[in-house]
Amino acid sequence: MCLIAIVGMGGIGKTTLAQLLYNDNRVKQHFNLDAWVCVSKEFDLHTITKTILEAVTSATCDIKDLNRLQVTLKEKLTEKKILLVLDEVWNMNYSDWEILMNPFKFVAQGSRVIVTTRDDSVASVMRANVTHYVKKLSEEDCWSIFSKHAFHDGNFDAYPELEALGRQIVKKCESLPLAAKAIGALLRSKLDADEWDKVLKSELWDLPVEATSILPALILSYKYLPSHLKRCFVYCSIFPKGYIFDKNQLILLWMAEGFLQQPRIKTMEEIGDDYFMALVSRSLFQQYSGDKSRFVMHDLVSDLTKYVSGQFISREEPEEVSRETVYKTRHMSYFISKFDSPEKFKVFYKAKRLRTFLQLNFSRGGDSYLTKKVPHDLLGMLRYLRVLSLSYYININELPDSIGKVKTLRYLNISFTGIRRLPDSICKLCNLQTLNLSGCKDLVVLPRDMWKLINLRHLDITGTCIMEMPMQIGRLKCLQTLTKFVINKYNGSSIGELGKLINLRGNLSILELQNVKSHVDALDACLKDRKYIEELVLEWNPNGINISKDQRTVLDSLQPHRNLKSISINYYGGQNFPDWVGHNSFSNMTSLCLYMCNNCCTLPSLGQLPSLRDLSIIGLDEVVTVGPEFYCIGSCSTKSFGALEFLRFEKMLNWEIWFPFGVENEGGAFPYLKELYIDKCPKLTERLPIHLPSLAKLVIHECPQLMASLPKVSALCELELIDCNEALIKELSIPLTGMQKLTVEGFSALESLPEGMTNFGSCLHDLRIWRCSSLMSLPKGYLPPTLKALWISHCKSLELPMHLDYSSLEKLWLHGCDSLSSFPLNLFPKLYNITFWECNNLESLTVLEPHEHDLMTLRMGISDCPSFVSFPKGGLRAPNLTSFWVDNCKSLRSLPDKMHELLPSLQYLYIEDCPEVVSFPEGGLPLSLISIYIRGCDKLVTSRMGWGLKKLHSLRLLEISGKSEDVESFPEEELLPTTLPYLYISKFQNLRSLDKKGLQHLTSIKQLWICDCPKLKCMPEEGLPASLSILEVYHCPLLKKQWQKRKGKEWRKIAHVPCKLLDRELIN
Asked: What Pfam families does UniProt report for this protein, alphabetically (predicted)?
């Protein structure tokens, strides 16, 4: 792996250079994965690791433990070629860098990590292979940037006077591209020479950067902003350096603060969008890593917002705010923590004129808690609040009635909290514009007087369990966002109320449509007139009792506007679809889903939707054939499904034939289809489209009668055949030279794989063979030389020939392979990940003699192997092994020998339900261990004083769980290292107390987690260590009885701990 540092002063173009590399398709094609992380001043390991993991998996992550994060990231990165950019690293110590880079030790050759920094010492700490120093631009290059931003085409030919002034201005930019961009954008399309001359002669150029730390060009850029943009820009000081903010959310905040001029023709949101793009055009905001909705400010621009906002905006953590200046503060933000106590916010109770209380969630992950006292105090003291955000605090289940007294409140975000009901007093907030309740899964009802919120514009109830809409919701004339509308048979607003909400836009789900009384009521919803709705879900309840007699006429009456981009029709009970479904007038439609419409006999004509890219048809049980009507053949000269990239058929229980004929056979359909899924179609017998030139992935699941030929396409790189007819397996005899990943599953009668699999060429790297119980051998005992990952599950008769060359194999997963009794590790020299699971006859791992080479293994697991008894004699020589777990191996008596010597890189050790393991090997455990989990190993726990844990100074987490009867007090003195920060203990049935000496020497302990200890009744007399910040206790009834009173001797022992959780309830 190559480490590259890009070093240079602020504003010189380090990030721009990195972006040019990162976004170049020629660069991207060399890497399997890429990730961009804006680091800024705070080098937070958890946040950076989590951001990288989310980037490479394209999924959100809620792992709160750094160790688990790193293990997961390592699994995703191993043998992958990655491009990682860490942007704006200000400071970094060597130990943090080493921890961050741990998962990257296992990436493929050719991987690159690029770090941009102003500090040359960062390049030294990271031991950069290459350090590139970004020099100042030449005057001509600086002029080129300036002219491009001052004039769209950069052409000054018609304005020689402006060019002369511009060239003098550029000289003052000190060859910094950020300065040239900012000043160029400031003067964009201004043709008055006097204005250019004012900028040239401004005294601000003479301000010493050392005095303000701000580039004069940026100060000038701010000075000449229109006043309405200045307010919006300064407000962004509320975001810390490097914070990635959402465009639409910022506009809503601006609106709440009254920064947007009153609209005439445009809406306030549209005006906010204009303001936002104006700041983008002036290079004050920049798009974050290609995401259209997320933006970030350059660190120097962030410094500018802080400089011009003075003491009116606080983005420091509350504990750092000066008590002398807080009374001036109008807007504050802070990062959410695991636990936020009243003390954290006490200083802001003096800020009587505070308008913004904004909680920021900076990818922290895990649950967060806030004492109920904080909302009560805030709402009782801060009567000028306009913005209040308390999202992601899972213990907040109610708001105080006093919220109704904060008449100024315009923005309220309590998303992803445990809120169960809203106080009726919330309906007194006549100025409220935005109410975000998304992710509040315990919320089932809204206050009945919601109609009084006459200025409400955005109501997000996504992910709630609301069963009805409040009466008269149609009176909310300003409402633009209403994510869900639920029709109740007996109570609440009827669907006709939607017709009164003429400003609706964005996403809308209409649920419980079986309760619509008639198509006339459906017409009253006026969906055809809602031209700004982009995504629509229409859903009936399959269990509804009062089913409408004619759902087709209801659906016909719910025809949306042709601007719609996405629609999903769920549980529709009609026999066919109205003509509007699939009509080519819906030219913007990109996604369409028909879900569980069980009574439909035919598919709608969808082939002429010109922009459709994603089509899912799921659970249409009565459809027997898919033919010309689906393609819409003959009605138009354009290709059918001309833009479609993703097509899924699933749970089509009576579908028999797909007629892929007509224009399709001549290449007239699906020219750009990349992925095709056919799942659970038990009666489908023949014919698949053959001419699919762009098909890259084909998945066929549970289609036992399908005997069609597979598409013959060179682009096909991934194929899954699961629980299908064996005739499809024969198709594998035909060369598929581009195949990279193949899954064969559920062919119980299959005895051998086709020999033609040897024709897969040099691409196959992932082979998965599951549930082929009769399979005895691989094709000719052959594995492609490019194969890197082999997954074999429940192939009870399959034996791995030991004479094969497994030298390319890197990942092996063996599940339910009963033919395996021993496994020779030395035949797999490059394995980095190996797992044995439910291999009932596996007894041992061996290393055939003579064998002098180390194993490359990084991760090894043995689970549910009841006969397993031994590891190789002399231990496992695996110097790179970082993760090792053994689970439910009842016969195992000992772990590998010499672990302390032979496993010097081991970081994660997990031993569970191995009742015969008595002790750790002689010599103890590797000093490199970070996390140890021991569960259900009672004999092993009995010998705990001989574990030698005290020497493990790298250990960060220890979890011990079991029913060992001898554990009455824990932890014993000298058992644990003093540096241990996290201790989890559970299921000790006889544990009565915590050992005072064992705990008190844990001077670095941060979190203590205790669960299922029914006899535990007291804490040490001396109390708990002062360093402890989180105490979590679950299912310990004797402790609960004493602590619930919040007084007395036992309470005093824990009173100093900031975060105390008792059965998930925050106690304070």
From this structure: LRR_R13L1-DRL21 (PF25019), NB-ARC (PF00931), WHD_DRP (PF23559)
Choose one of 87, 112, 133: the last residue of a domain.
133
Quick one: pLDDT at residue 1047? 83
Whole-number mean pLDDT of the chain?
87
Residue type, 792: I
Decide the pairing of beta strands 458-460 and 434-436: parallel
Q: Measuring CA to CA, which residue among 599, 598, 559, 600 is closest to residue 582?
A: 559
pLDDT digits (tens, 9 = 90+) for 1024-1067: 898 998 899 999 999 998 888 788 888 888 988 888 888 888 88
Contact 175, 142 (CB under 8 A): yes
Percent of the chain scoring above 70 in pLDDT: 93
Residue 419 reports pLDDT greater than 80: yes
Amino acid identity of residue 750, one-letter, is L
Confidence of residue 276 (pLDDT cuts 50, 70, 90): very high
What pLDDT sits at residue 884? 93
The DSSP H or E segment spanning 304 is helix 299-309
Q: CA–CA separation, 144 vs 772, rounded Å?
A: 66
Task: Report DSSP state, residue 401.
Answer: G
Say how far apart CA 74 and CA 614 lie, in whole Å: 32
Q: Is the CA virtual torsion 5, 6, 9, 11 positive or negative?
A: negative
Whether 641 is in a domain gets the answer yes
Q: What confidence score (pLDDT) does residue 546 get?
A: 47
Q: Is the peptide bond before 850 cis (omega within 30 degrees of 0)?
A: yes
Q: Which of 252, 250, 242, 359 is nearest to 296 (CA)?
A: 242
- H/E stretch holding 227 reads helix 227-235
Which residue segment(s) compose the domain that 611 sits in?
Answer: 575-708
- Answer yes or no: is 387 within a domain: no
- Mean pLDDT computed over 698-717: 87
Q: What per-residue confidence (pLDDT) applies to 665? A: 52
Q: What is the dihedral of CA 998, 1000, 1006, 1009, to 10 degrees?
A: 40
User: Do residues 402 and 220 lie in contact, with contact meaning Cβ atoms separated by under 8 Å?
Assistant: no
Q: Which residue from 1052, 1004, 1013 is spatially nearest to 1032, judged by alpha carbons?
A: 1013
The answer to whether residue 803 is domain-embedded is no
Query: How many domains in the chain?
Result: 3
CA distance 777 to 799: 6
Q: Which residues, 6+ apart, have CB-to-CB distance to 249 below 8 Å?
A: none
pLDDT at 211: 57
Q: What is the pLDDT of residue 154?
A: 64
For 220, phi and psi rounded to 5 degrees?
A: -65, -45
Cβ burial of 493 (10 Å; 0-12, 13-18, 19+) is: buried
- Residues of the chain with pLDDT > 90: what percent? 44
> CATH number of the domain that 44 lies in?
3.40.50.300
**922-959 tens-digit pLDDT:** 889 999 999 999 999 999 998 888 898 999 999 999 99
User: At 212, is the pLDDT very low, low, confident or very high (cuts 50, 70, 90)?
Assistant: low
Among residues 847, 848, 896, the alpha carbon closest in space to that of 869 is found at 896
Q: Residue 547 domain-assigned? A: no
Task: Read off the pTM.
Answer: 0.86
Q: Which residue is it, tokens 């350090």?
A: 131
CB 659 within 8 A of CB 626: yes
Give the 3-state secondary structure of residue 862: strand
Task: Kindly report the three-state secondary structure assignment for every residue of 469-509.
Answer: CCCCHHHCCCCCEECEEECCCCCCCCHHHHHHCCCCCEEEE
Are 152 and 116 spatial neighbours (Cβ–Cβ below 8 Å)? no
Three-state SS at 345? helix
Query: What CA–CA distances, in Å, run from 75 to 79, 684, 759, 904?
Result: 9, 38, 30, 19
CB 963 within 8 A of CB 990: no
**Measured between alpha carbons, how far is 893 from 889 in angstroms, rounded to an integer?**
9
Burial 215-250 (b: 16+ CB within 10 A, else e): bbbbbbbbebbeebbebbbbbbbbbbbbbbbebbbb
Decide which of 650, 684, 708 is a domain's last residue: 708
Which one, of 325, 399, 389, 319, lies nearest residue 356 by Cα? 389
